[in-house]
Amino acid sequence: MKLLVFLLMLLPGFASAGAIRLKDLVNFDGVRGNDLVGYGLVVGLNGTGDGLRNSPFTEEIMSNILERLGVNVNGEEFRPKNVAAVLVTASLPPFARVGGQIDVTVSAIGDSKSLLGGTLIMTPLNAADGQIYAVAQGTVLAGGAVAEGEAASVVQGVPTSGVIPSGARVEREIDFDLSTLTQMRLALREPDFTTASRIEIAINSEFNRAVAIMRDSGTVELNIEATQSISTAHALGRIENILVEPETKARVVVDQRSGTIVMGQEVRISRVAVSQGNLTLTVEESPIAVQPNPFARGETVVVPRTFAGIEEEEEGTGLAEIPEATTLSEVVAGLNALGVSPRDMIDILKTIKAAGALHAEFVVR
């Protein structure tokens, strides 16, 4: 019997995974990272930098940096190949303090062939408000390699992008004071009324009083003052490890490229009959050349000859009945009874869904 359905039982949101920690189910309102971006220059490349004629912005930023360092380059024309203009990105974690260090990613924006061995010059990193929150500098660790000769070249990985571990130092803190909050909203990553209700009950049971209330399917509001905790941080530290069993949706996800089918435990199929046949269409071209008789007038011509046929496999399953299934194992057994390939199974599931017999969300990727 062919492999028809690949079941991944441990993916969150597809099968009941038992009790999950609260901090893995929700996001705490305000406790979030912030994206940073900067425009800088990588130097010290081994002839793999930008072609300044094709990337004039590289020459401009290089001139600005040299002038800030007291080097007058007005009217000078330089064409070094060991520099490259780059965009520097990073994520400022919540509660990052001045002096802390964060990782940065460096990506070439010109026609540089590789950033391997380069050094990023001091680059300010701005947030969406335009303020500078960190400054990046350091040696770029590129993950690819380039080798080339006069007639051929080979590239492995992405040498035009790299990282600098702990390459940026925090210079400004996010203006967010957690201790002043009297209310905290818990945002569910997978909104669901049942899960939100269970979170409310679990938190109130932990404190033996009504301190949490469900506002909607994606929000549970926590009253910090009612918890009688020393601080907001103490209250969140007490509830984040509470175990809650989330409710999951019935869902079928298929990947048409790989033929993978993933089913959740809550998937149900009503009683249905399925017929699936395989047709093979064959078209063959066998042209032949026809020549005139010896010493006869005429010319050689090519006469087309085509064979076309349709063949249907006789060893098909015919009309197969899938009984009403109440468990995932019964659903799998019913689908396996069809004896078809995974890609054919995707089409069968689509058809069953269209017939109204598949009671689950159907997601195609």
Global geometry: flat
Largest sheet: 6 strands, antiparallel, barrel
Structural class: alpha+beta
Question: How many discrete structural domains?
Answer: 3
Total strands: 26
**Cα Rg:** 32 Å
Low-confidence stretches: 1-16
Strand % is: 35-45%
N-to-C span:
26 Å
Total of DSSP H or I helical runs spanning 4+ residues: 5
Strand order of the largest sheet: 3-4-5-11-7-6
Main location: other
GO cellular component, one term: bacterial-type flagellum basal body, distal rod, P ring
Keywords: Bacterial flagellum, Periplasm, Signal
Pfam families: FlgI (PF02119)
Can you lay out the helices and strands and say which pair or pack?
Layout lengths: L19 E2 L4 E3 L5 E10 L12 H13 L14 E10 L8 E8 L10 E8 L5 E8 L1 E2 L2 E4 L4 E4 L4 E10 L12 E6 L4 H15 L4 E5 L2 E5 L8 H8 L3 E2 L6 E5 L4 E4 L4 E2 L2 E4 L3 E7 L2 E3 L10 E3 L2 E7 L6 E4 L5 H9 L5 H13 L3 E2 L1 E4 L1
Polypeptide structure, described:
Strand 13 (212-216) and strand 14 form a beta hairpin. The protein is of the alpha+beta class and 365 residues long. It contains 5 helices and 26 strands. The protein folds into 3 domains: 20-30 and 177-244; 34-170, no CATH class; 251-364, no CATH class. Helices cover 16% and strands 36% of the residues. The strands form 9 sheets. It has a 6-stranded antiparallel beta barrel with strand order 3-4-5-11-7-6. A 4-stranded antiparallel sheet has the order 2-12-14-13, with helices on one face.
